[in-house]
Amino acid sequence: MSELTLQPIQFLLSDMDGTLLLPDHSLSQRTLSAVRALREAGVFFSLATGRPPRAMLQQIEALGVDLPTAAFNGGTIVHPDGSFLVAHHLPRDAAITSLELFSTQPEVEVWVFADGAWLLRENGPMVAREQHSLGYPPVTVESFEPYLERIDKIVAASANGQLLIELEARLQSEIEGQAQVSRSQPIYLDVTAMQATKGHALATLAEFLGVTLAQTAAIGDGGNDPPMFHRAGLSIAMGQAEEEVKHQADVVTGSNIEDGAAEAIERFILGADPLM
User: Fold this and answer.
1) Every domain of the chain and the residues it spans
2) Would you list the DSSP string of the chain?
3) Is-contact 90 83, C-beta < 8 A?
4) 94, 103, 191, 204: which has the fewest C-beta neighbours closer than 10 Å?
5) What is the pTM of this model?
6) Which fold has domain 11-87+196-269?
7) 190 - beta bridge partners?
8) Its Gene Ontology molecular function terms (predicted)?
9) What is the per-residue DSSP string for 83-149?
């Protein structure tokens, strides 16, 4: 965790789901207004999410984001024109190990993101929720084998959150040093390239913008957000985040249903909160 910065924040990197977005994946008017005020104040603003780039387009437009954005937990950083600033694929061996482990779990649905598509072998009960979130349907394939060299992310999806915690610990030990394993949400376990962290994304974007890390802020709610907390000058956890996530942030704001992201922008970045 960083020490609280006394420098003015010049760049805010924000998570999307559970942070900017309400549970129905919409943006509140207060959040839209807060981001607009932030940008009008000359503070850079961008997004970092476990989502694929294609599933960020609607929010990018609504928020007026005109900077590169980080998808797949930072594994891919995309310019507004669709070109890549950064692109990291999952190593083949780590992909095989992950797929083999997840395929042995009856309560787990296995999804692969590659070639700009959301791939699966069987349509399960979690798919409808994800399709609503992403805004596009999956593609059913007979095998993931043809995609092993260019996988952006593997997701184990399950309503059994405790099982995902156990799988996270097991898989981390099996592919340590090869790939990142983190729960972006309690029902999703993500596997991405080693370089695919929001911490790397924050540092890359800050360098791209010419901003020091001490002048950056990061806000999020999930298990994939602390890597950017540790690099940012100011880190902010959402009110509904797990305690382990909150403990790694400098400050805690309201929950996403309480417009906590907007509150944080108004209070800690645009305001004159004594904590700053």
Assistant:
1) 11-87+196-269, 92-193
2) -PPPP-SPP-EEEE-TBTTTB-TTS---HHHHHHHHHHHHTT-EEEEB-SS-GGGGHHHHHHHT--S-EEEGGGTEEE-TTS-EEEE-PPPHHHHHHHHHHHHT-TT-EEEEEETTEEEESS--TTHHHHHHHHSS--EE-S-SGGGTTSEEEEEEE-S-HHHHHHHHHHHHHHSTTTEEEEEEETTEEEEEETT--HHHHHHHHHHHHT--GGGEEEEE-STTSHHHHTTSSEEEE-TTS-HHHHTTSSEE---GGGTHHHHHIIIIISS--TT-
3) no
4) 103
5) 0.85
6) Rossmann fold (3.40.50)
7) 155, 182
8) magnesium ion binding; pyridoxal phosphatase activity
9) -EEEE-PPPHHHHHHHHHHHHT-TT-EEEEEETTEEEESS--TTHHHHHHHHSS--EE-S-SGGGTT
272 within 8 A of 255, measured Cβ to Cβ: no
- The radius of gyration computed from the CA coordinates of the chain, to the nearest angstrom, equals 18
